Amino acid sequence: MNSPDNVASTLVNFSTIGFIVLLGTATFIPMVYELTLLRKNESVRLLRYYPYRLISRLGGTLSIATLMVTSMLFITTGLLSLVYFLYNNDVFINCALHLSIIIVIMLLLYVICILICALPFQKHEIDQIIDYTAVSYEEIDVKK
Amino acid sequence: MKTEEARTPETTKEKIIALLQLAKNYVWMSSGLNSEFYNDPNVKEAMSDAFRRVKQVKILIEGNAEERKNEMGWFFEEAKGLKEKLRIRQCNRVPHWLIIDGKHFRLERPHPTGVVGVDNLVVYNVDPPVISEILRRKFDKWWGMAIPVDP
User: Pairing relation of β-strands B97-100 and B104-108?
Assistant: First the structure.
């Protein structure tokens, strides 16, 4: 039932889907993040809401780098599984299996970290920043 | 993230000096360069030290920079010596902010030109980083629209 061939083909599917999803997320999130930044006057105000705090954390450099690295690990897993079919050596399937376990643990930690990081909200401090930047700067004529 | 309000020129001075001492990479400043405030020996020393230490300095002067050259001679002399990294621009009207390494900020409520502002908010270690991104982009927008000044 759990022959190495079955495991290898499952890993190929798993890594292909994982690669597409993660790379897609890593390219899509910065776009959403940039779009929210275009609303300069409301951006700080939006931090009062959890979904925006989550997007701003997801769009951070470290977060995007993590997603990119994980998607590359997915590709490596898929490649190792494919190489197994070529050489029929169990070492490749073992490596792919271990790598996929590492990836899942990494993803789990990443999701937990991001969700927790987005939770704290220093209401008083953010309200003060909103208050001090409340002038409609877009209307200010900086040209001389 | 920690915030502190400064409501007198003296406390504002202390906070600005403390902020300048934290600078490691860059100093972005928009100011009316009020001589009464910036000619204070302690402020002068903190500014000079920070300008020499960091890699980039952007000074956005509110009003006519030429008019400030007499009152703020030391500053323009300093700018001449640090021409590589210190750039000055002027604009008509701009909020007075101080951005240190994109981490620490001084935000001032608008006040009439020529007087020392007394409503300041100092933000240390801004978090989440998106706040820094928003404020830096605002400053960058003003900077892009302002006119370069030759010290």
Answer: antiparallel
Q: Hey, is B129 helix, strand or coil?
A: helix
Question: Distances from the Cα of B138 to the Cαs of A11, A56, A60, A74, B23, in angstroms?
Answer: 47, 17, 19, 39, 20
> Are A56 and A39 a contacting pair, CB within 8 Å?
no
Kindly list the distances between the CA atom of residue B48 and the CA atoms of B52, B55, B84, in Å, as whole numbers in the listed order: 6, 13, 15
Token pair for A73: 């690990």
- Token pair, residue B85, equals 């990294």
Please name the residues between 8 and 27 in chain B that touch chain A, using a CB distance below 8 Å: none
Interface mutation vs chain A, best among B7, B131, B142, most A CBs within 10 Å: B131
Q: Specify the CATH architecture of the domain B2-149.
A: 2-Layer Sandwich (3.30)
Interval B14-70: pLDDT, tens: 999 999 999 999 999 999 888 888 888 999 999 999 999 999 999 999 888 888 888
> Which residue's entry shows tokens 């993590």?
A66
CB B86 within 8 A of CB B78: yes
Contacts of residue A132, Cβ cutoff 8 Å, sequence gap at least 6:
B107, B108, B109, B119, B121
ipTM: 0.85
Q: Give the distance from residue A7's alpha carbon to the nearest chain B alpha carbon, in angstroms.
A: 42
Q: How far is residue A126's CA from residue A108's CA, in Å, rounded to a whole number?
A: 30
Residues 6+ apart with CB under 8 A from B109: A132, A135, B117, B119, B120
Judged by DSSP in three states, A45 sits in helix
Residue among A57, A132, A140 whose CB faces B107 most closely: A132
